Batch of 2 targets.
Target 1
Amino acid sequence: MVSVVGTQRQVEQTGTESTVQDVAAYMQQVGQQARQASARLRSATTAEKNSALHAIADALLASEGSLLAANEKDLSAGRANGLSDALLDRLTLTPDGIKGMVEGLRQVATLQDPVGQIDNMEYLPSGIQRGQMRVPLGVVGIIYESRPNVTIDATALCLKSGNAAILRGGKEAINSNRALALAVQAGLEVAGLPADAVQIIKTTDRAAVGALITMPEYVDVIVPRGGKGLIERIASDARVPVIKHLDGVCHVYVDAAADAAKAVAIAFNAKTRRYGVCNAMETLLVHAEATEVLTTLAPMFKEKGVELRGCERTRALLPDCLPATPEDWTTEYLAPVLAVRIVSDADEAIAHINHYGSQHTDAIVTENFTLARRFLTEVDSSSVMVNASTAFADGAEYGLGAEIGISTDKIHARGPVGLVGLTSQKYVVFGDGHTRA
Amino acid sequence: MVSVVGTQRQVEQTGTESTVQDVAAYMQQVGQQARQASARLRSATTAEKNSALHAIADALLASEGSLLAANEKDLSAGRANGLSDALLDRLTLTPDGIKGMVEGLRQVATLQDPVGQIDNMEYLPSGIQRGQMRVPLGVVGIIYESRPNVTIDATALCLKSGNAAILRGGKEAINSNRALALAVQAGLEVAGLPADAVQIIKTTDRAAVGALITMPEYVDVIVPRGGKGLIERIASDARVPVIKHLDGVCHVYVDAAADAAKAVAIAFNAKTRRYGVCNAMETLLVHAEATEVLTTLAPMFKEKGVELRGCERTRALLPDCLPATPEDWTTEYLAPVLAVRIVSDADEAIAHINHYGSQHTDAIVTENFTLARRFLTEVDSSSVMVNASTAFADGAEYGLGAEIGISTDKIHARGPVGLVGLTSQKYVVFGDGHTRA
């Protein structure tokens, strides 16, 4: 694995792209400023934070011209460097895209503020009252790729949850992100919050990432967003906790006791709603007594252009079906391809999911109450569903309002991570002069 | 920092102490067995887990003779190796100590089982029902020093929370821990749970620790218990999340609006109840208008043998007081020594705590409601108290029943960590054939 941890290096760049000479010193300063800003944010009122979100939205609208101009610089450079059309598409800012960011900011302003909420407040035998107060994590570092809207999404969520943010976007978007940073800082200043509450790293030097993930004194958690390779590398090199999202090899298991119409609808939706998303079904497991579901689905998938790769029993049933290799059971296709396996019972289905799956999202279709309860307990995934499409595994669908990502970790936050996932709880104790015996 | 990560090494030990020849292969096997056992534990009922706890307790009572004999071996070896009296004391097992372990196991059996609890179950606009189910983390690795009772405490908490445990105690206690392991495994078998649900590492080779903390495929979280140096080293080398406890530099701030009698009682209790514990007060901050509290406390501390080290203003008030150096503000004495500083206002106190403290436990003594609220918000520690002694920061006092440690992290668990801290939450979704638009 290539290390992204850099030592003190000089940034060798020309023109306006970077003015950072000493990356290590620069990142130290960014970290210190974030830590300082986080102390102010910790006690910022909900009104102050919401006012900052609206002020940033206003500043974005006011600077549409300069945002589009900066983005055009990135696009020209991208074209010159031979970026793929898909990458250029993700990089592109449009007036509608800016409107989307503005709406996102105003929507986060409407969400409930988790900070300060006290749970479990109760009197204990000693006479003290003890509770748990929700508090910001402190400083959140976000590492992402070239989509500039992530800059504003992350800003909104970190700010509302009372965290200072250090944002490191892809180098292809550096000019767009710098222009967005100006609007963010203008908004923060209007609201009377420190401009360093959200800092966007100004250098494209990779050593900045190495520094960001190894400063536990300044950074409380890292949220990497991007491909599996990037995330694994960051998790491996980090000296700071990482909330990470690896792959989504999601399953739908159609049980013998499934309602066939529900099974067909769910499996078709889970595969074809969108192919490139982590909550799409990648493997369909079908009980040997429910194969009519499979024969109904096969022509529907064919019409939609979904390629099937099946086990021997599946191929006996569907002669057109390609053979599945062992690798298919662990592959996140993110494409119109589906692995299919016929199983003899629910035990085999659950064992398959826990062995080959990625613990992201898995669903059972069954009318059998006892089996549904068992599936919920025994399948060890961040979302486990009964009679619903895996496509629902999403922050907005779960009512979180917005999400910073979907965690496939078990520690701290699991599944879609919203505002609450960016907070911690501290104990609060009230007494009347109480001492411990 | 010395790395504890070892490569494949041969264990060079003689006699019965170790039969492990290839540490890397042995640890792989331990990891695989733990992962396998955790799948069974995930769906173990509360009754099964409680029955195992009682069966282990019974097995401990039945094997008192062999436990004491094994412990005597460790003690002889310890004496021969020149262990300090304090270490030998911690290493010693007595019939009363065994009774304490037995009571601990039976008490954990009485605690509420957090696993399976579903929170936030609600209907969402799409018609699905979404909730969060509490689930075990999976496999927990505990690294500790020479106290054999930790072996049983950790066993009880991991088992009740549905986690498989891999326990690595200090090398001085290897014979005691092996004898305890026999009782634990006998109990697990009686209850019909896998014997590998709790594994005690059989080798004293340090490479075993290096392997344990770098197997994310088998281990979900590491809880190190011991000195700050050990914990920092583990946190630095781990490739697995670590729930850690660094130092406790705890403060009591006596405000101008404090009730003097409460302030005296709280400060005296927080310092003198026990010196060697992490929740003991190490620095007393006193408002310049509340110095009568200090002049009342000074002779009490003197009589108790507590040495005071004060700022200039403190020394002007208490001529006997030694001068505090900057180092005193960040020192966890764990001894009858107290740093004292007179501050001009609450701002100075809060700034001192957030700057020099260790974010463990800090208390204010005040009758001022507004200031109490401010202190709760602005002091960024795992426990923040009003008019109560820092000595209350403890799992038992907080009603957790038992604790695996006190976390000074912000991620996942903060403050005393009980059964809930050893669990995660997964999303569960119920539908009626729902698909996403």
Target 2
Amino acid sequence: MPAWRPTSHVPADIAPRLLDELPPDAESPVVSFLRRAHARHLVNRDGVVATYIPELASVDPEAFGIVIATVDGAVYEMGDTRKPFTIQSMAKPLTYASILDLYGAAAVRERIGVEPTGDVFNAISLAPATGMPLNPMVNAGAITAVGMVPPARAAGEPGRIDQLLASLGRFAGRRLEVDEAVYRSERDTGHRNRAIANLLRGTGAIDGDPDAVLDAYFRLCAVSVDARDLALIAATLAAGGLHPLTATVAASEDTVRDVLSVMATCGMYDGAGEWLFEVGLPAKSGVSGGILAVLPGQLGIGVWSPRLDGRGNSVRGVAVCRDLARDLDLHLVRGVRPIGAVRTRTSVARRPSKRGRSVPERETLAVEAGRSLVLELQGSIGFVAVETLAREAVIGGERPSAVAIDLRRSTRIDPAVTVLLADLVAGLGTRGAAVAWSAVGGHEAVLDRVDETLAARRLAPPRRFAELDLALEWAEDVVLSRSGASADARPERRFVPLAQHPALRGLDPAAVERLRSALERRDFHPGDALVRHGEPAEELFLVTGGLLSVWVPMGSGDARRLATLDAGDLVGELAFLGREQRTADVRADTEVEAYVLRHEAFEALAAVDPATTTVFLTTLLRIVAGIARRMTDEVVQLAS
Amino acid sequence: MPAWRPTSHVPADIAPRLLDELPPDAESPVVSFLRRAHARHLVNRDGVVATYIPELASVDPEAFGIVIATVDGAVYEMGDTRKPFTIQSMAKPLTYASILDLYGAAAVRERIGVEPTGDVFNAISLAPATGMPLNPMVNAGAITAVGMVPPARAAGEPGRIDQLLASLGRFAGRRLEVDEAVYRSERDTGHRNRAIANLLRGTGAIDGDPDAVLDAYFRLCAVSVDARDLALIAATLAAGGLHPLTATVAASEDTVRDVLSVMATCGMYDGAGEWLFEVGLPAKSGVSGGILAVLPGQLGIGVWSPRLDGRGNSVRGVAVCRDLARDLDLHLVRGVRPIGAVRTRTSVARRPSKRGRSVPERETLAVEAGRSLVLELQGSIGFVAVETLAREAVIGGERPSAVAIDLRRSTRIDPAVTVLLADLVAGLGTRGAAVAWSAVGGHEAVLDRVDETLAARRLAPPRRFAELDLALEWAEDVVLSRSGASADARPERRFVPLAQHPALRGLDPAAVERLRSALERRDFHPGDALVRHGEPAEELFLVTGGLLSVWVPMGSGDARRLATLDAGDLVGELAFLGREQRTADVRADTEVEAYVLRHEAFEALAAVDPATTTVFLTTLLRIVAGIARRMTDEVVQLAS
């Protein structure tokens, strides 16, 4: 939610020039934009209020509200954004959405076309050959759509209008009500719509009692909304049917695509080509003076100003939509190249796992780690993303042994690309690569479908890992096994006699014995903590056997594995030397054998045997310097 | 360019089922998709080849090619993608682009409308009231457009067709030629077009000699292209007019928006609503059997298969477009929420500059650095990006003193958001924040316009920095100066007597004197290197005065500032202890005073005075451990 909100409505008597000179008063630039647009068009008093029923004629003709709502729930309001008016024809796209969700596009298209008509808003607009309505945005199409909503079969069951109100409420994100006075007026004066309904009954576009259908239709047109509702309805359409604030699904993605397609050409009482050319946003207007307009994937716009042009569209509403489209470059065909789906492309040579490796393994990896590929994806993974991913996987004709694809920053995998992803995995397999996904949380369903597609081709599914570091470890293991590295060299099998521990390097046997007298052997079981975050650092551990992991607590309460350690490593050297608090947890992954050097014991030794402690400190310094250098390299890499 | 390319065309007699069982043979998933689509529709032999001129009738009816070209220059081909055919009506959107670029949309719309027509491809389609063509995609509109291209005024000047060929060539990315045989046939049989041209001359839609206009029009229809050309023309439209391979501007962005708007409703010989509903891609077809279709911002599609349906569209071409739209979810109104424009949001507390700070400065920053905000943008910065940026700038009602906005990963700033950015800067100023841009390279023109907008409001322009680290340093300076930190504490003013250098901490005066005898004073001027990347590490420097920077060479030949150092710091301690090669350059930024400890001198001292060297090593170890810890923290932060 934006912290910058309009704090007051613009008084109607402030001239735009004056407004532009007001200090911006720390408001969002979006609000500044709306403020200027509101002031610029407020002076426009062209057009007339609809008068075909008294309730519409009695509205304040000066009323003017503009709202922008983003798909992630920011709402910006300016002017009369909370005053009620009736939804009128703006209910039509939502009614169409209801029946598309109920029956699917094919069945609905048997009754209602998708062709625009240049006719005025209350034209009859039936296709000459079939007698079916040309599209769902004209009255005939909307009445037909209402007729397709199943009526209540028994007392107490929801009737057509109840179902439609529930659907509208999901789009608006709140419970909506019928304005009874407007409904009665519509009903009592709706002779032309009565004629249309009877014609439709005659052609078979609607079944049953036309009066019952009409009653629901009149109530639907009389549903009370405000400009904020229009923007949130539009934002829900922009978000593929998911309401930005309630996170309720108001319609399926396919339905929303079909609704927006029709709104693009048939939504305004206007030339079909002209609206798309001039404004380029799928939109729907109503005779109450509202317009809702949609920039798919990004935002919804709601405008309300009751004076209408000769075609029945809000004069100011059209002007605001044109401003937004032209001044802000919001236009359906104004494509923006998506940010690259591949956020980073590297290998375990540049981004090694935290798993500690034996010397032979390290030597092998130093040569072979470039035979891996680590691709971090971001954003929504659709066709273009997979195309990019496929290219990144084979740049320069490389033939990696292992490809890890990280999904932590992927917001969504479009189910439409299932087969493409299976093709990608299969293609990489043919080129000799094993493939793994990491950070798969939330994407399991689509990955399952990829696996099924592969299984149908008798191909093995990719591995899946919960976090990237584990996939990196897997990639290293693949590289190692392809290089014929021996399993005997695996870290968990190694024990280092204390005298050969790297921390004691450079000491003669007598010095080792003197140092050993200051050390205390200690064993740990899997899960035991050697050091704990926040505790004072009093001990240094020389690990002689087993595997350990270093976990750094993250803000969220999670921990991240920073490193793994094994025989020959040290635990706690940084904090021990600085005499500070531990900044991480170190826990045993296996049975662990270690020797502990307490701080007092070391100081006692230094007092009596400075030569030994000098050598020991120099060795420690080299180890720590190596850590500092590795971390520096990692910083340079991560920041580049 | 993709490394995965089709290596052969699909033989016409391979059934699709068989193809699906072929091993994918390490091809791109995009090629796999095209291969399947090609095989699936190859068996469709519906429709008939156009026969109104013999040259069209003589084409191989089985010919079938599909090409996808992305806006960044990847081209995927399947089937007959390099066989020539004539462009026919697919020249119409490009002719329209030419005159839009020449005259602007307003002047062009006085002669040619933008309304779709359900008429067949060679209908006359003039607006009843004005006699002007309904849209530029019908023959009347295209002939009018050709008539608006200025004729040659003197011998040797390019005529209409020369100008149009040059424009088409920019869209295709290669020089195109007229197929003379087809041209002569079109000319000799084009009676209906001759009638249209004379009608247009009568209504005033074209001026001058209709035969001259018609001659250029017939040549234009007879331009020879292949399916790859169509895809690259479409990709150029998808890229807003920039050819993906030649990087030549074929048309302005506004022109391309207008062209695509008209293609969305008028491009296919089809119901205007139906194409948008079923396929949802702006497209244009021709009677030679080609279709070009555009997914704005992402890709272009070219399909060629000569058999036409009753409306004059390629049967297989329409089917392929529908597959792409439906199977791959490519549809104009299928909006994808852009990846967040704000890639990272942090402060100089979490992301300090590399500038070394004095102790009082560090103490102030430790408390106050959170009063800064560092926002790294990514991708194309349009309205939605600025809206997000504005929200991120005020999350939780924070009131930062300094806001640094980094543009390194911003591909483009839409000129349409100039005023919004000025509003943002002004609004942040009202909230008490100074604002700076970093990594401004390439964005200067738009930022100049932001500055102009601010200047008109008598507001100061934001600072600009070439790289983020300098903006971070600026943000720290702002925070420090707002906190009343003293300028006397600035690092460049400080000198540390050798005896008080942190590296000598813990040594008694006698020990300091003994160590001092092993040290050698050395002075450096601005630009001098203390250590050089790749050289052996033999020396440790204790800096007692001046400022230095550590530069790490990057792969590109650039260097990145990794740190700055000043009085009290060490240079070269890591490599010195490990006896390895230098991994960075360290250069003096000001006059620098330092004391050098050579490796041999240290070893000689250790042999005679182990107690002093123990204390010295312990101190060094603490310093290095501090570096390692800082770097570890930075890794955790950067990786999170």
